[in-house]
Design goal:
The complex is a heterodimer of chains A (229) and B (288). Chain A has 229 residues and is mainly α. Chain B has 288 residues and is α/β, with parallel strands linked by helices. The chains are: A mainly alpha (229), B alpha/beta (288).
């Protein structure tokens, strides 16, 4: 299965399709950090929100690069379950690279600052919360991108619709006072938490919520793949 | 391997492409899947290979290692031939050295050595098809599924396909082949499965079945297509010859000549399992 993960990542990189989401990610990060300096935890919380649709889109592109017949050849070679898992893992690896860029980016452009007031969080704590917020977004974004992939939805139009609905829904349904926040991954709630009171129980709860949401969407992806044959 | 009451359709509310197929293929057996375009030959093959999942029914006893050669190799990939085949070999579970050795063996054998560093999209259709053949053979398969394997191949490689099939059979593997060009005449020992209207029937032969030679005249321009169609329908084409008496023949009432073949020393009779089939000899000016 590792060979399939490597092959899919290589295909993603060699076709140059990785450039579009990378540039999009840099643009949103540049916009985010271009307005001034913020403390790490707060900045990273927002960074995870804006990267959510970028990573989902990146996942869709990565999974769509492989021709349909080659995907079937891979399925014959490694089996159905491993073929599915290899796609998600490859997308996860690509997403982690994007997250690493996002975590490094504000330090390169001077977008973050250390504690200003006595009650402010230290840089290591802010960094840890930022890593947590991004890692919370990764499985949800990968799951959404996989659900929007060609192998799952068939036509390109449906894929774009799934991505758009998922991206917009994550923000809109995640706003304070939302009537159905559980329909979206908790990336907005995570951003609020990193910028405010980050109690351990809250972090644990949000992590469980994110994993449950991701598992449900991955379940939908696998069901769609099964239905698509 | 056994397909048990297999039904399949491509869309939830679509028509059933396969309807209740029951068939068994044992180790050391080869079966040729015949049928018209769109009859479902590729679908049967993909169900057998594990690419498609039956809507109803099940496939049991599928060997662990399956080699599948798709009808059209997906050449739109950013890899060289060597890089792609190495990746497929690793995917099939071969270690680094074993993968390199398998890739070298099969690129040499299929005449791909000169193309090792060529990117897949730059290959001709026939060369890409050879890569498709190579990827299926990198690790000896317990089931080899070949979807129109002769399509686009040069003469030398076409001759190699029955050889590869024989090797898989000799290692107690099973082979499924589809063909609409009549190339499976190269596999005289093959069982013949005919797919039509979503059903699969096996053509059986009996030693004492009587058969006949039918001479058919067709326009020279349509010889290739007619021969391919007759073979796809399971007939044995004995040969093609120019008909000097075409003009005379046109003047006569058009009646096919049918005669018992028992007295005819034809190639069909010398073939092991093919003698029971109807024997049809189209008359026109092009060898097959």
């Amino acid at each position: 299965m590792n060979a399939l993960v490597r092959m899919r990542l290589a295909g993603f990189l060699r076709t140059g399709r990785a450039l579009a989401p990378l540039l999009a990610g840099l643009v949103v990060l540049g916009t985010l950090y271009g307005g001034g300096r913020a403390q790490p935890a707060e900045a990273y919380g927002v960074s995870a929100v804006v990267l959510f649709p970028v990573i989902a889109w990146q996942t869709k592109i990565l999974l769509d690069v492989e021709p349909d017949v080659q995907r079937r050849l891979a399925q014959v070679a490694v089996g159905v379950a491993r073929e599915r898992l290899a796609g998600l893992l490859a997308a996860g690896v690509a997403a982690l690279v994007t997250v690493a860029v996002a975590l490094l980016f504000p330090w390169l452009v001077g977008g973050v600052t250390g504690p200003v007031d006595p009650g402010d969080r230290s840089i290591p704590v802010g960094l840890a919360l930022g890593v947590w917020a991004h890692l919370l977004a990764v499985p949800a974004a990968v799951a959404l991108g996989a659900l929007a992939s060609r192998a799952s939805v068939g036509g390109a139009g449906y894929g774009v619709a799934v991505l758009t609905l998922g991206g917009v829904g994550a923000v809109v349904l995640g706003l304070s006072g939302s009537v159905a926040p559980w329909l979206a991954p908790p990336i907005m709630a995570a951003a609020r938490t990193t910028g405010g009171d980050a109690a351990a129980l809250t972090l644990l709860g949000l992590s469980g919520w994110a994993l449950a949401w991701s598992a449900a969407v991955v379940g939908g992806y696998l069901w769609r793949r099964r239905a698509q044959g | 391997m056994r397909l048990e009451d297999v039904w399949l359709r491509y869309h939830r509310r679509g028509p059933w492409v396969l309807r209740g197929i029951n068939v068994h293929l044992g180790p050391g057996e080869v079966a040729v899947v015949l049928g018209r375009n769109g009859a479902g030959k590729s679908t049967v093959l993909q169900v057998a290979a594990g690419v498609l999942r039956p809507g109803r029914g099940r496939v049991t006893g599928r060997p662990t290692r399956v080699g599948w050669v798709p009808e059209r190799f997906p050449a739109d990939q950013p890899f060289t031939v060597a890089r792609y085949l190495t990746g497929m070999a690793r995917m099939a579970g071969l270690g680094g050295a074993a993968a390199d050795e398998a890739v070298t063996t099969w690129t040499d054998r299929l005449g791909l050595s000169a193309f090792r560093s060529v990117r897949l999209p730059e290959l001709s259709k026939g060369t890409a098809q050879k890569v498709g053949l190579a990827q299926a053979m990198l690790r000896p398969p317990g089931l080899l599924v070949l979807d129109e394997p002769w399509e686009g191949l040069d003469a030398a490689t076409r001759e190699l396909v029955p050889e590869l099939i024989a090797e898989v059979l000799a290692a107690d593997g099973a082979v499924l082949v589809s063909d609409h060009r009549g190339e499976t005449v190269r596999l005289p020992a093959a069982r013949r499965w005919l797919v039509a209207d979503g059903s699969l029937t096996e053509e059986t032969s009996s030693a004492d079945e009587t058969f006949a030679v039918v001479e058919v005249a067709v326009p020279a321009a349509r010889v290739a297509g007619t021969v391919a169609r007759l073979r796809a329908e399971g007939h044995q084409v004995l040969g093609v010859r120019a008909d000097a008496s075409t003009a005379t023949a046109r003047a006569r009432p058009a009646a096919p000549q049918v005669r018992p073949a028992a007295a005819e020393p034809t190639r069909a009779q010398s073939g092991a399992d093919q003698g029971a089939d109807p024997v049809i000899e189209p008359a026109a000016g092009e060898a097959r």
